[in-house]
Amino acid sequence: MSANTPEPAPQPGEAIPTVDLVIADLQERKQMGTAKYGVAHQFDNGRDHLVDFYQELQDALVYVRAEIEKRKVDRNEVLEEAARALENANQVNSAGLVRRMRQEPVARAPAGVWVPGSLSVHGSCRICGSLRPINREGRCLDCFSKL
What is the rounded CA–CA span in Å between residue 59 and residue 53? Predict the structure, then answer.
């Protein structure tokens, strides 16, 4: 995942519209602020809102970057697990073990959810065509993370 790679166009989903979730969050935030400070937020409260906003954005950037790094670690763990599985298959009896591993069902999860341990030993990614570990949907981890 690159921070500069454009995202694909959004596809219709079944979830609650995100803006509705934000509105509910803001209503809850207003109640919390009123309970804590005795008044809802107002523009003439004596604070420098631009500085408050800038400081909040700095915090948000730290949280976002931390999640990006966490996903890289998670991705590397999945790839390392696949490499270990392939190495073990080669050490035991490559042809027989690989055949058995491909016949065994993989971990099931809803479509669009990457399950560690759900990789086949290797295969051709149905998106990019590369020969590498793929999930049950036939996607390598790089193509899966572009969803």
Answer: 10
